[in-house]
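FORM 7B: Structural annotation worksheet

SECTION A. Query
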Amino acid sequence: MKTQYGKFFSKILNREREYKVYGEGGKPFLCIPCENGRFYEFEDMHMLDVYMPYIESGKIQVFTIDSIDGETLSAQGDERARIELHERWIEYIVREALKLFSSINTGGGDFAKFTVTGISLGALHAATLYFRFPELFDGAMCLSGVYTNEYRFGGYHDDLTYINSPQQFIKNMPPDHPYLEKYRSGRLIFCVGQGAWENETLESTRRFAEVLAEKDINATFDFWGNDVRHDWEWWYVQAAYFLPKLLDL
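SECTION B. Predicted structure
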């Protein structure tokens, strides 16, 4: 399997950004790490092993990036400054990283739509990216996520916390919003366990399922058993189960 390490200077974040690429072609996947995660988490935690057969067969190409959660959603302090920096991280992804990754994937051809995946806090980021930018993403797999950022900012709300909280902004979309049809044509998978450390994620996933159903957005919501914990050993099983469904295999 071809593996490529790279970095570039992000003008939006005013710092260097590192990434890794796995595979040589196929459907591009953008993988968001867990809370405070790095671009190498996907490999170090052995989630790459689950994706490996699809990478080696040329069905997918995987791109991994860093979060900056430790300065934003996981941090303390000035709420506006934190959410402004988080918004710049979102802009870095859609305006800089995806442009580069698409060029790598297509060999400089037309833009290729991505599937985005994320686990835990990464699931919130993945859902936010999919629902804010349906012109860039046509699929998402979100595991053990909370789909609002309210609990990260206490009682603070503003325009940026709102647009980065899909549970809120989708609920308020009018029925004729043009994005709704785009959402309905995508492949969406949300999974959560009902065991240890999944209380908040379970509640949020149930609420998010209701929000999408109200908007007639087709999505798979799977609620696994009481033995299924908020832990890597179960995320491996979930990813292995859902990847073929994302790829229609």
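SECTION C. Observations
The first helix runs from residue 41 to 44. The two ends are 21 Å apart (CA to CA).

SECTION D. Sign-off
Analyst initials: ____
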